[in-house]
Every structure is written in structure tokens, then in C-alpha cells.
Amino acid sequence: MPVNKVLILGGGIAGIALAIALTKSNIPVEIFEIRDEPSNIGGAVNLTPNAMRYLEYLGVSSSLMDTCECPAIEIFSLRTGAKLAALSFDDVNAYKFRARRVIRSALIHALIQTLGDLNVSIQYNKRATSISETSDSVTLQFADGTSATGSLLVGADGVHSFVRSHIDPSRTVTYTGVASAYAFLPASSISARLPFVATALYSGRAGSVLLSYTDAARTQLYAGLVMEVPAPDSDLGREGWRAHNKDREAVRRDLTTRFASPAVPQVSELIEKVDEWWLRPVYKLPPSGVWWKGQSVLVGDAAHAMPPQGESIGLALEDVVLLTRVLEKHGGTQSAGEMFEAAWEEASWRWESVKDKGVVATWAREIMTPWVLWFMQGKKAKEMMYDVREIEI
């Protein structure tokens, strides 16, 4: 069955990237976003070499050359300040690109620009209220009274996906117990020496601290602090977490208690100097589940929500490229959906929890980190060379 039009619900990274890929493949799309404008919320994302190759395929990578190129993530002890190891992205002969650290909103705007160059625009203020299907079509109803009909609906609407509630209503998100606090600040505001080239990960008992430049000139810093945070007493919704952000001084005190260390004065200093921290809860989905049913399919966090470990953008872009290839070859058939799900059943679950390991376990992890990363580097290299454009479909 040919795909006459694809409806995409979600104007984030996965949704816009899919709209670009399908349009380039001459598959008509309409893309809808619940917000009234592009999202400016979010930290700085890691674009792995895989992700950069997919963005090149989409025609977006050239717009990101003024961001921070990341030849390696350098890993330090939060307890002692010592450098433990590094995870390298520097083999451009094998990977074609090094990794990059990019502000999320800048990536979204680069995608929007590319989509606009293809004469496709995002329809904002579109809150979906219902989904109905026939044997060969799907219709979205919106709160404003309008509707849209296509031959396939793609849910790129994030971890709290409306489309997933239609495809697999029993598969609901739960809070992981982990949250990330993030902020941006000028690098010049930190008087302590920053002992890394591009990106540093400080590992400690209470969690981890990621520091990274976000621009090629290395003038702007991103800080992301990942830690265990108990669930609030009230409903575990996104609005409740936003309310937490109002108490900036309490957040600062909490971060100081968890992460301040005389061995890493730069971390203590940035916690003190940041004016506003954003707190983002990390949710997870049960493994497996249904990704494609009838005329509807899921991609990105709607299908496989991931913790902040630096690969979620790459996986979302893999979904985009693979789904585009499937639709080009198989159309919107159920067998195509089964093939798409099978290809990602295992690859989407690269989940690692962040826990308070205790003093002894923290010291042991510091000792083992160089050996573990040496062992993992070969595996990571294979992952970074992997490309869904090369697999048989």
C-alpha cells in the first residue's frame, strides 16, 4: 500500500528530522506541534558521530559547524579531581565526524530552517484529542476543531506520547528516581582552571556532573548535574517539576551539598554563580511494547525514552532514517511495521541507571574506570561506525 501522506505529531528533533527525510524522499507530510512556537527548553545535547552522519544526510550538519567539536569525553573523579580516563570520538577516518555538543534549541532551529527550505512548515497550537483509523487511513482530531487525514500517523511526540496511548495504552511512563539539573553560563565567569579540552564528566558518590563548551570559540559552558531525586508527594507531572524551579536558592543549596568538592573548585564555583537551574525529571518506558499498530507508528522518545547518557538523539535519528527507508521500499503495510519494530527491539535499550553507590563503591569505580573504558572503546567504536543506511530491509 503506497503512503500518500504521513501525519507527524510532534515538532521536536525526531518529528522535524522525519519531515525532512520523508520530504526528500517525495513522501508528502504534515507536521503538528502542541506548543505555540518552537521549544527553547532543554540543555546541550551530545551529537555522536552517527548522529552527525545522519544530520549530513538530512542536509543539516553544515549549520552546526560553529558548535563545540568534541574529540573526547574526559572523565574525572569528583572526589579527587584526578583524570580517570577518556572516551574518544577522534577517529575521523572511521567515523567521518567527531562528536559535537549542541544546544538543543539551536539544533531544533537548524532543523526548522532545513524543513523551511523544502517548503514545509510546522503547524503549531495543535493539541490532538483523538485518533481514528480505517483500513487505509488515519485521522487526527485537534482541540481547535480541525482535523487531518493521512495514510500513516507517526508519533514523534516524546516520552508522554499521545500517539503511544493509542497504539499501546498499557505502556506508560514511570519516573526513574533520577533527574538532571542544567544551566548555561559564560566560561569566563569561572575563575578556576577548566582542565578539559571540550567535555568533562565528573563522577561522584551523589551522581555525575557534565561540563562542556557549546560553541567553537569555547566561550559558553553547559553544566548538567545528574542525581537521584525522590518523587514529589504531588502528581508526578511535568508542571510539578517546573514548580520546583521557582525555589532557586533551595536548588543551589541541594546541588552544593551533593557536588561541591575542594578537589574540583570549578564545580563549586559554577553552582554558586548560576542564576537559574532547570530541573528535568528522567522517565522510562517498559521494554518491548508495540511501536506500530494499524496506521500508526512511534519514533524517538515516544518509542524508547532514554536517560541522559548521550545517545538518545542518535537513536531518534536512526529511527527517522530507518523508517524513511522502510516506507520507501514497503509503503505503509503491516509487514513494514513488523520489520521496523524488529530492527530496533534490542538497539533502543541502552539504559544505565545513576545511583548513589556509596563511598567504597565510588573508590572502586574510580580504580576500574580506565580499564572499563579501555575494554569498551572497541565496542563503542563499532557502535559509532554503525549506520542504518547500510542494513538490508
TrEMBL record:
Key word S-adenosyl-L-methionine present: no
Domain FAD-binding: 5-330
GO molecular function: FAD binding; monooxygenase activity
Protein name: FAD/NAD(P)-binding domain-containing protein
Domain of life where this protein originates: Eukaryota
One Pfam family recorded for the sequence: FAD_binding_3
Swiss-Prot/TrEMBL keywords: FAD, Flavoprotein, Monooxygenase, Oxidoreductase
Family indicated by similarity: Belongs to the paxM FAD-dependent monooxygenase family.
Organism: Microthyrium microscopicum
